[in-house]
Amino acid sequence: MKLSFKTPAKINLGLHISHKREDGYHELETLLQMVSLYDSIELETLPSGIELICEQPGIPRDHTNLVVQAAQLLLDTCALKETPGVRIRLDKNIPSGAGLGGGSGNAAGVLMGLNVLWDLKMSRENLARLAAQLGSDVPFFLTAPRAFGKGRGDEMSAIQTVGKFKVLLVYPGFPIATPWVYQNLNLKLTNPQNNISILKKFLSESQVAELGKHLFNDLEPVVVQRYPEIQAIKEDLLHSGAEGSLLSGSGSTVFAIYDNPDCAKSAYTKLNKGNGGVFLTETVACFSEFWPDEMLNYS
Q1: What average pLDDT does this structure show over 193-203?
Q2: N or C: which end of the chain has fewer CB within 10 A?
């Protein structure tokens, strides 16, 4: 049996870090939004074992890959009379180490897909709780296309999606290691005026222009200091007519949001150098945009 589906990228419209927790993680608040840049996954049942096929260079195919960890986590969690196997074919379009949650979305999709293929009968809520063991962003991809995250980023609350808007993504061609960013974060320099509630208000009311004016990311100054080209990309995007521009997560991708679709298309044409690092996307409103009915109707 086979099952094919897509998994989306995400952006952080707001990211506030308040303090470092006793468990070593950082306490944060973030506003997450899925966008229409997708990886493709095909799952095929095997008698046993977990096999990952991915032709993109630089992508690990062993237990260090989150999709392999997701499959193994389900095997370890569910008491099955016979241990099933799976072959996972992964086609990557979302850059790795780019702050777009590609690997996290892949892992969430594999949890949902294997729930169907292996007939595990787990609810999406239970899968999301399990997903937190894989990484802070993974539960988001099982919660809603738009959500508020707190704690270490894994405590998710869905936010109703109203309108859509265009999002231009610019990947500068290099990844950034998330641990390095957090290690170099000076909490004394974060802006206490940054307010997620204001962003949630403008987002829920589809006030894209106001949303753009209030985008913030407490990790951005750390990254810009080391990589000044990030700031240069932001300025190019703002000059292109964007309502706002920001580093996504810990980077390295910079995104811009547009109230005017034609303006977004014009900016894409201007900034796209043919090297595959610029993506014109839009916000995702529902899971049916990338998951098939078998996955949506099962859990």
Answers
A1: 85
A2: N
Contact 120, 114 (CB under 8 A): yes
**Mean pLDDT, range 134-138, rounded to an integer:** 92
What is the residue-wise DSSP string for 58-94? T---STTSHHHHHHHHHHHHS--SS--EEEEEEE--S
For the CA atoms of the chain, what is the radius of gyration? 19
Q: Please pick, among 39, 92, 137, 166, the residue that the annotation labels catalytic.
A: 137
DSSP label at 228?
Answer: H
Instruction: Tell me how far CA of residue 103 lies from CA of 75, 81, 92, 198, in angstroms.
Output: 19, 30, 9, 29
So what's the pLDDT on residue 161? 77
Structure tokens at 219: 């990790």
pLDDT score at 62: 93
Report CA-CA distances (Å) from 70 to 131, 193, 274, 293.
8, 38, 34, 21
Q: Is 197 exposed, middle or buried (0-12, 13-18, 19+ CB in 10 A)?
A: exposed
**Any idea what DSSP says for residue 138?**
G
**DSSP at 187:** G
- The DSSP bridge partners found for residue 146 are 33
Q: Is 137 a catalytic residue?
A: yes
Domains of the chain: 2-158 (3.30.230.10), 166-282 (3.30.70.890)
pTM: 0.94
218 annotated active-site: no
